[in-house]
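ingest -> validate -> predict -> emit
validate: passed (alphabet ok, no gaps, 295 aa)
predict: started
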Amino acid sequence: MFVQEVALVSETTRVKTRELMRVGAALQKQAARDFEPIWSVPATIDVFERLEDVPIGYWPVIIRDDIGFQGAAGTHLDQDGQPFALVQADEPWSLTASHEVLEMLADPFGNRVIAGDSIMPGQGQVEYLVEVCDPSEAAEFAYSVNGILVSDFYCPSFFDPLAVAGVRYSFVGAIKGPRQVLSGGYLSWHNPVDDHWYQARFFGPKLTFHDLGKFDDESSAMSLREWVDQRSYDARRAYTGSAVTIQKTAVQAARDRGQLYAKSTRSRARRWRTYTKKLLGRRQQAQGARKRSGR
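emit:
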């Protein structure tokens, strides 16, 4: 089985190597502990100081001050057709990085679809674009790993035909049934009847449906995910601006948990240093005793 290799790189002075390494460790744990058992995609997430240090074959997730979009510009394909992602260095950038890493692992090239019944009235079977974090992407549905805020993601059961008691539809359990879109989230699909792409958005008081048009020859230079994200960017930006209070509350709660986690790690570090000092002291005493005895 191939192991997907992802590189986390900061190209901004706002995200220091120390912070980058803490987030990288959290994303690695999320990928190995939470995501792989559900999606069967083994991966490593490694931190590098510079893009020049990233080995050939890794997919980079690049943190920058300005990527032209608020939050994440999504997963792109480079000139060789290989995936990479851009993340803006705004709080909570760890949540955005988690979102991009997981979607890159589930669908590296941004074109994977799964058939299912449409959630839009009047449509039959459609093809859903696999974007594992989008329906529950809001910060209020996120969770913490090592005190770092990371994204919820849906499970393959998300595309089941019917809801069944006891089935897990997203990792944190926020999604309660197949193809449910939560507040702040969205879901995209292709309707083969009219060859149009559609999107369900929960960017206000209720779920709304939107016709995104056709993915035509002029759009073929980009992935489906990139094309869809471009057509929902304005709506997502407007919602993000209106949901600032909700996001700040979720981010502050995560920051509080992170401070408690840091308190624990600092205490453990002090114990390690104390024990190391004692261990070295005992060795020095033993060496001194051997010298005095002439051995």
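Residues 4-251 form one domain.
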